[in-house]
Amino acid sequence: xxxxxxxxxxxxxxxxxxxxxxxxxxxxxxxxxxxxxxxxxxxxxxxxxxxxxxxxxxxxxxxxxxxxxxxxxxxxxxxxxxxxxxxxxxxxxxxxxxxxxxxxxxxxxxxxxxxxxxxxxxxxxxxxxxxxxxxxxxxxxxxxxxxxxxxxxxxxxxxxxxxxxxxxxxxxxxxxxxxxxxxxxxxxxxxxxxxxxxxxxxxxxxxxxxxxxxxxxxxxxxxxxxxxxxxxxxxxxxxxxxxxxxxxxxxxxxxxxxxxxxxxxxxxxxxxxxxxxxxxxxxxxxxxxxxxxxxxxxxxxxxxxxxxxxxxxxxxxxxxxxxxxxxxxxxxxxxxxxxxxxxxxxxxxxxxxxxxxxxxxxxxxxxxxxxxxxxxxxxxxxx
Length: 383
Description:
By secondary structure, the protein is α/β, with parallel strands linked by helices. The protein folds into two domains: 3-144 and 282-363, Response regulator (Rossmann fold); 148-272, Response regulator (Rossmann fold). Helix content is 42%, strand content 20%. Helix 12 (305-325) packs across helix 13 (330-337). Residues 1-23 have low confidence and may be disordered. InterPro entries: BCAA_transport, Leu-bd, Leu_Ile_Val-bd, Peripla_BP_I. Residues 1-23 form the signal peptide.
């Protein structure tokens, strides 16, 4: 069984533990994630993180004296499905709040449903800047935008010696946004961006793009895509003899790259939102250690924790908002989210207003960590 399939099997086991609480009033949270399809490995890990958060919350008495129940749905790595899942969760399952929907493209597809039914969603992964600038007051994002991630990464440009760069990104809102924002950051520092190429999310062969990039005089290649495609890309880059620094954005999974790309992953750099290899870097180191322990007890692969941490934080943020609201009411939860302050695994979460006046979305500031793969091990470059 491949590593990514093993991850999905483990996550499915965790998701299956403890179904709907029988004969007991519960508070529901909807979870809209890609459990099948091209980014299923990542979506299953986020979902596993939500389950660990719910289990911890319930072990402490639940929310407002009621058990927390996650209603988990598969958006199949597809934006149309993501929108349909959101509508189903809201209208049939009557969830007062959601977590979702991993990809920026999926989240953007869900957003009209949030506005139509006036139900808030904590966005745990998506990074396209327009998610929080379109004027949707039911969006609260804990993950960094492409722009804030680029701003956080800027402090590493000089130490790494980056002078000229190329970009190879997945051809969707996430990848295009990353290339635009990181490219702007580099140009603002007076550096050169040679080529910015894209690849389809389902592409198995990117040798043509890599050969094109090999012809430039860049010292660095920035890559943005899911870890499955990243693995293929690194192997193909090694086969083509592409000699340059590789930097991934968007919170890649280094452990999976080590397991599946082998030596092709060596000397690559990765921008991380949560660094479980170094729990002391988390906003709440003790909470990070407990999460790491619970993840291990669940039999989940250690490499999935960077994704799982986002699902974990999202559920905890919503739980705190529901407690503040005093009821599982969508509008009260939306208002309470502005008051939440939470030291999570992925940083200190406190929402700031972004977007058109009167219709602002919530965006939590974020600082990323930089890690490197050296001889098959993850090392911390800097906090």
